[in-house]
Design a protein that fits this description.
By secondary structure, the chain is an alpha/beta fold. It is built from 20 helices and 16 strands. The strands form four sheets. It has a six-stranded parallel sheet with strand order 4-3-2-5-6-7, covered by helices on one side. Strands 13-10-9-14-15-16 form a six-stranded parallel sheet. A two-stranded antiparallel sheet has the order 1-8.
Length: 547
Amino acid sequence: MSMFCNQCEQAANGVGCSISGVCGKKPDVAALQDLLLYTLKGVSLYATKARELGAKDEAIDRFVVEGLFTTVTNVDFDPAHIEKAIRKGIELRGQAKTLYESACSAKGLAPAQITAAQAVFAPAADLAGLIRQGEEHGLNSLHVNEDIRSVIEILSFGLKGMAAYMDHALILGRTDEEVLAFFHKALAATTDTGLGLMDFVGLAMECGKHNLRTMEILNQGHVETYGHPVPTPVNLGTRAGKAILVSGHDLKMLEELLKQTEGKGVNIYTHGEMIPAHAYPGLKKYSNLVGNFGGAWQDQAKEFVNFPGAIIFNTNCIQRPADSYKDRLFTWGLVQWPDVKHVEGWDFSAVIAKAQEFPGFPENPGQEILVGFGHNAVLGVADKVIDAVKAGAIKRFFLIGGCDGAKPGRNYYTEFAEKVPNDCVILTLACGKYRFNKLDFGDIGGIPRLLDIGQCNDAYSAIQIAVALAGAFNCGVNELPLSFILSWYEQKAVVILLTLFHLGIKNIKLGPTLPAFITPNVLNFLVENFNVGPITNAEDDLRAALA
């Protein structure tokens, strides 16, 4: 069985994984994920037609969002679970068809015949058959023209990334009708053989626009539920007691676990992209949220073996678990791994019971690092920042952040941060910050030189900071003394990049390598319109930024 997957930065040989995924994804899972995406397109063909007539269905909308998120890198590795999703998708495709036909009937219209293969294909009766079907509908089947196929991939991966953020928003009870409609519209468009290159370029840019809104409502959900993040020191040591480690991105899941462990002698530690949770007043109020353990996602296999308690993943970033900790590992939400215990719903009693079986940590306080510099915190001292820029105390801002990963070359971001002059401020977000967030950068007139904005979805905060500074200096964002030095790994980074393009932001340095799914012609388009460029080496790139 073969596969082809090029959706993450670690694509084998810079082309694509064809034997087994570098992420741990096997060919059967790759095929099933491709078939799930194919199924979602069929659902959306009917759902978008129904929406044009004013008919919609919350279950269909949510399924499409969850289905897309399921196919993001490092989320679902369980063939049996993906098979269930495909079969549910076929059922909902039928419901979407009925919804459309009923809407037509209500308006006295004859329903259009939708003949695209995605709208009519019959799923195989068994798992092996579904895998064979998935192999027929992989990335290389998207279009015969490689440039159009490249932009369809950019759009598809953007939709996957946006679905991750929308899923978090939906969990918090936030939604947006226009964004949900766009998911269906864009998925349906990828089946239209009459669309050309610039049609898909336009849809990709529109995806960036809708992702900005998605990140906005997610930010609103976080703030309205937990308050604005505030600068907060996070302990990297340990507190005496039983322990649970939470990895992923979802704050609601963390809150429920904190509630259920309160007063039980079980301490909660964050891992990876969960570290910004410590800055939210509604979460930091829990005394059993005690610190952060470990670094970015790619180091989990060597770090988790040393965690003396239970571990739970609530979103993407899971890797193949080692036997040394697999028996105390849990998944939640859309994360799945074969033979790993999955928590359905909000009852974490099994996780708590497992933590009680292990010794936990001794008291051993460690280094503290600051988090919580969201846009509200930064703009709260905007006058000091603006005065420092006008006085020449701050010469430039560098946004150094994004996804981390295991591929060689990512030490570039550490070197770059270390070389940034003392009269410059570093903004950072996502797990790429673990490359340098333990270093002491000092401050400029009381303003820390390293400002941790938060998770990858908190790119919204970074954008708000940039827009506010541009307004204060009466210029465009591209005219600010601000450089974007970004690292990427998976599809959430892709959609953030599309959002930056939608906003017209130029001169972005991207690495450690450029996406394998971007053809030379598409790259030339991005260079000509946005001056995107690959990172080279820290010294030369820094010199160019400061010139």
